[in-house]
Amino acid sequence: MIEFKNISKVYGNNHIALSNINLNIKKGEFVFLVGPSGAGKTTFIKLLLKEIEPTNGEIIVNGTNITQLKRKKIPYYRRNIGVVFQDFRLLSDKTVYENIAFAMEIADVSSKDIKRRVPQLLALVGLINKEKLYPHQLSGGEQQRVAIARALANNPSLIICDEPTGNLDPDNSWAIMELLNEINKSGTTIVMVTHAKDIVDRMKKRVIALEKGVIIRDEQRGVYGYED
Ligand SMILES: Nc1ncnc2c1ncn2[C@@H]1O[C@H](COP(=O)(O)OP(=O)(O)OP(=O)(O)O)[C@@H](O)[C@H]1O
């Protein structure tokens, strides 16, 4: 479902962030993207979200060459991708329910469908009785569950997670990983950037390691491979 063909990204200051990346991620895979700071992981994700353009190469997602996608079509393309961040990024003036509903409103989902779907999503992430609370009334783990529900709201085929457990204690981190694993088992492809060695080592998923803009390792049932 994701194909990077000879992708390079050189930033304006002539810094080579990614160099000739070739890879394939199949529908339904769970992939960890690891590597030291500055390796090019964020650049990889920004390219996938079409927030930046490659200097060379093509990116194909679900059969579409996104490097050629017209500007008008970018919002539709992004609707098919859910994104989960380290710092949750919930809207602080909206309740749990409204945060999830808002993601659907901006995708023009009917209010009838929103009313039907939000409770389903809340049940999935285990927050059925928290719908009226505001983000500041929730624990970090609960906030991340809301963010995951929001990421799933428009039924994306791909979820990108950027350090989703970075602000959570070990118990909450594992609960979030179990949730992501369940979501993956139901067919959603997951690409997760992380520095969490114990999580990568225990999950035994595909691990792609970047260093200085190059893939140095790509293993099924891989390990983190660094000491931090
Ligand atoms: N807008 C930019 N302009 C110039 N250089 C940049 C820009 N964004 C990133 N870089 C450089 O490109 C390289 C890759 O950065 P990137 O953010 O992709 O790394 P990363 O693997 O995500 O690191 P971290 O784990 O610290 O988030 C780094 O050397 C960084 O300094």
TrEMBL record:
InterPro entries: AAA+_ATPase, ABC_transporter-like_ATP-bd, ABC_transporter-like_CS, ABC_transpr_LolD-like, Cell_div_FtsE, P-loop_NTPase. GO terms for cellular component: plasma membrane. Residues 2-227 form the ABC transporter domain. SUPFAM superfamilies: P-loop containing nucleoside triphosphate hydrolases (SSF52540). GO terms for molecular function: ATP binding; ATP hydrolysis activity; transmembrane transporter activity. Its main location: membrane. It is found in: Cell membrane. Homodimer. Forms a membrane-associated complex with FtsX. PANTHER family: CELL DIVISION ATP-BINDING PROTEIN FTSE, IMPORT ATP-BINDING PROTEIN. Part of the ABC transporter FtsEX involved in cellular division. This is Cell division ATP-binding protein FtsE. It comes from Caloramator australicus RC3. The gene is ftsE.
